[in-house]
Hints:
Number of helices of chain A: 9
CATH superfamily of the largest domain in chain A: Winged helix-like DNA-binding domain superfamily/Winged helix DNA-binding domain
Order of helices and strands of chain B: HHHHHHHEHHEEH
CATH architecture of the largest domain in chain A: Orthogonal Bundle
Distance between the termini of chain B: 102 Å
Strand order of the largest sheet of chain A: 3-5-4
Shape of chain A: globular
Shape of chain B: flat
Order of helices and strands of chain A: HHHEEHHEHHEEHH
Strand content of chain A: 5-15%
Strand order of the largest sheet of chain B: 1-3-2
Largest interface: A-B, 64 and 52 residues
Number of domains of chain B: 2
CATH topology of the largest domain in chain A: Arc Repressor Mutant, subunit A
Structural class of chain B: mainly alpha
Distance between the termini of chain A: 66 Å
Helix content of chain A: 40-55%
Number of domains of chain A: 2
Strand content of chain B: under 5%
Number of helices of chain B: 10
Largest sheet of chain A: 3 strands, antiparallel
Structural class of chain A: alpha+beta
Oligomer: heterodimer
Helix content of chain B: 40-55%
Radius of gyration of chain A: 21 Å
Largest sheet of chain B: 3 strands, antiparallel
Number of strands of chain B: 3
Amino acid sequence: MNPLARLLEAALFASARPIPLDELAALDSDVSPAALQSALDELRETYDTAGHGVELVEVGGGWQILTRAEYTEAIERAQLAARPHRLSGASLETLAIIAYRQPIGRAEIEEIRGVGVGSVLKSLHERGLIDVVGRAEGVGRPLLYGTTPIFLEQFALRHLEELPRADELAIALRTVASGPTAVQAT
Amino acid sequence: MDIDTLVEPALSGPIDFDAPFIEQRRLDPVTDGAPFVIELTQFSGPLDLLLALIRDEQVDIYDIPIARIAEQFLAHIHMLQLDQAADYLEMAARLLRIKAQMLLPRNELDDAWEDPRAELVRRLLEYQQMREVVDVLERLGEERRGRFARAYVPQQVAPPMAPLALSLAELLSAIDRVLRVAKEPIIHDVIARPLDVDGAIDTVRAVLALRETARWRDVCPPSSQPWQVLSALLALLELARRGELRLAQLAPFASVLISRESASQAA
Lengths: 186, 267
């Protein structure tokens, strides 16, 4: 491994959060973005081919070293680390709506889910998955919510565009293409 | 069949408290803190329940037999004892309204006729689309949950103090320097000056004993201290309350006229 890859490994090891590319670049001011990228690729290659228990992943606009999935159970059994709590169905539904419709207000979320979401929003906010990103125009200037980098990290997404596009969803196609006509036809 | 055999099956074997008739979702007090939102394992809301009914009945979502589905919906929310949950009741009301609208006679050729179910269909599709995203997120989240990142969080403790490399002479001269530049602190003396309302009352009485009427300046000279002004004011108000004098202001911002109350004079 070249010295830059080793430096990156050390930096990624020291950080509890994914490190964005520009912060990695600050490690060595002489290095070009291309060299940085190739060093990251080299590190990932090394982990993948040389038989390491960890791997290098790109999430939430940054890079992070993660343990491989096959060791999770043993690690958890030995109580060395604990998986975060699984999100409830209500939280996931709310998060899905925010991820696709952001910035979005509470009333719109409730309209789509058909239930109140006050406490769910609060807990998502506490977990750092969503944040207030602005206020809507109109009566009461309601708060608008959006997802955070922590959301990307916890769902191993590089960016929001990695989620399936709305028109890639089976249902969405029907809504747009045949929905209104089909309704009229009845 | 006697009564025993009716009761028997329920009592045979240990009672399984973990298999409730209504499976309430294990409410996570942190994530789902809403006090009375009853979430069932299967359903996360009225739209979810509705979709399940449509699936079970195998009907076309674009042509929902609204009467049947509304009936089923009501039966379910009774069965599931959800009838406290406003969200479900709201949907039940909506279904019944659509059902009523469907029953209204209409002209088959009327182009302007709008299917009362259209809005519901739109919402159901939108909800279904969102459920699809939930599946994606669930899978991604589960994958990520199964891998650990570095758990190390830098401790935010202050670094230990470096040992003091300083001679006594240096320390003393430093203290000397500090004392020389330090300004003499300004210490305010706060003296409690209680109001002398009784004294002011005496003054007012003395003034009014000599004259029928008086002005503010007569009871409170211009050079008065604030506490004296306040005392005079309170004295006037107190005497007015007791009915010993009368206060009048003939025009806005005019000087207040203090006049002896004739009754008290008589007394």
